[in-house]
Amino acid sequence: MKRLLLIALTLVSANAIAQTITWSAPVSVAPSSDGNMHPRIALDGSKDPVVIWGNSAMGGRAMFSRWNGTTFATPVALNPMTLPVFTASWAGPNIASHGDTLYAVMKNQPEDTGRMYIVRSFDGGQNWAAPVAISGITDTSRFPTVTTDASGNPTVGYMQFDMGFGGARYVVSNSNNFGTSFNTSVMASNASGDVCDCCPASVLRSGNTVVMLYRNNLANIRTIWARISTDGGNTFPDSVEVDNTNWMVMSCPSSGPDGVVIGDTLYSVFRSSVSGARFYLSKASINTPQLISAGQFATNFTGLTQQDYPRIANTGNSVAMVWKQVVGTSSKLCFSFTNNVTTGFATAYDTLASSGVTNGDVVITPGAVHVVWEDVATGTVKYRKGTYTPVSIEEILKTGTSIEVYPNPANDYFSVSTKDMAGIYECILIDNSGKRISLIGTQTAGTASFSLSGVAQGLYAVLITDKMGHTYSSKLMIK
Predict the structure, then answer these.
(1) Average pLDDT of the chain?
(2) How far apart are the C-alpha atoms of 403 and 424, rounded to whole Å?
(3) Euclidean distance between CA atoms 324 and 331, whole angstroms
(4) Exposure on the CB side of residue 377, measured as CA atoms within 13 A
């Protein structure tokens, strides 16, 4: 345990500067009659929050609400009463977004043999298409999780079983037509041992890198593993154990991991209980692959009895985390943030709710953090927004490998050599206020060019990510 705490100092440092977050007052997303189980949050094309959660009424409903500019809109059920879905405090429907394209995934009841479904919106959640089945009729499955590729197509991960509920494993399936149909699922967990069959997972995507992050079960050693694909989720040849606690537990903990991919690095959060129920943060290399560091995030103190359900989100190198923390008899929601994850997190953190918390979720965009949680006291989903000052352009330029763009200063367009890149996944301009502008380039042999039509004059950081997740940066003046 001493070794774990020491190597964790690469991610948690007393010398790291705590970023000041200004928080709004908490508000309820919907009345208690609409339920509050397992809330999950994403952002629409305007960077406004959209929230999904479970309601145990009528067999199980997946509820949805979106921010309409001043408040959360009246919630709607995403599944008909004839298609009840599994929902609980520790697991349930999930959501992912790509601009105003939203995907929600859910598991039809009965929870062991029902099929999994996806529902889709292409206007930020104002309208939703009918549910589409993801898993096959004969699949025994649970715990769907979803992300998107660069074009906005969904990538879905879920737990699959043999007939008779044995052989628990995680698989991934891609759609090439925005969720109208899905390709045959591929194995995305280790062949040795089963996965922990009551622990949800997270599927992550950055360019062609897809990571299935899950809790394994090898003779009751229930640690967190990452299975890695670098071909868009078609094959998963590599693994890395991001959790080196060797936690052995005979009963299922019902707690899964979450993570973010930043360049070649996977940051993971999870619960382990080798020394009390504690929240761990780990860092691993994807290309190698190998674990770099792992350890308890927060220092133990008198009265701390439990930490669980950690979640993590990023925008560039800015990273935010939330987790449930029980002190005495009070179940709190805690929050930590860093403007640059490469310099680590400060030991200080915020408490966003002082009691009644079951679990929460977080998303982040430059200048703003959005948090939701399941509040037991009121029976509602609670929401808070935090604002902060984004990093300067000079700090952003430290994110990736320096490259040259030309012409610079630019007017109508700029170009960049792609000879050392594995194709271009995305190109983003970031100004001094943190505003991000996505550009679509035209690629020829060894060169990519980007139109600057409609982009205001000024100084920008250019961030280009290739299809292997490598990031390149340059300063650009537009005149």
Answers:
(1) 92
(2) 14
(3) 7
(4) 11
- Residue 445: C-alpha distances to residues 88, 421, 441, 448 (Å): 52, 12, 13, 8
Cβ atoms of 296 and 279 within 8 Å: the answer is yes
What CATH architecture does domain 393-478 belong to?
Sandwich (2.60)
Q: State the Cα–Cα distance between residues 436 and 427, nearest whole angstrom.
A: 10
Q: Comparing C-alpha atoms, which of 214, 205, 209 is closest to residue 169?
A: 214
444 has a pLDDT exceeding 70:
yes
The whole-angstrom separation of Cα 224 and Cα 214 is: 6
The CATH 2.120.10.10 domain(s) of the chain lie at 2-387
DSSP class of 179: T
**Nearest CA among 60, 117, 65, 118 for reference residue 89:** 60
Q: Are strands 380-387 and 368-375 parallel, antiparallel or unpaired?
A: antiparallel
Is the pLDDT score of 8 beyond 70?
no
Query: What global pTM score does this model have?
Result: 0.86
- Single-letter residue type at 129: A
Q: Answer whether 284's CB lies under 8 Å from 266's CB.
A: yes
| Beta carbons of 77 and 51 less than 8 angstroms apart | no
Over 90: is that where the pLDDT of 14 sits?
A: no
Q: Which residue(s) pair with 214 in the sheet?
A: 225
Domain with CATH 2.60.40.10 in the chain: 393-478
Buried (b) or exposed (e) across 385-408, using 16+ Cβ within 10 A?
bbebebbebebbbebbeeeebeee
Residue 316 has pLDDT above 90, yes or no: no
2-387 is a CATH 2.60.40.2230 domain: no
Q: How confident is the model at residue 397 (pLDDT cuts 50, 70, 90)?
A: confident
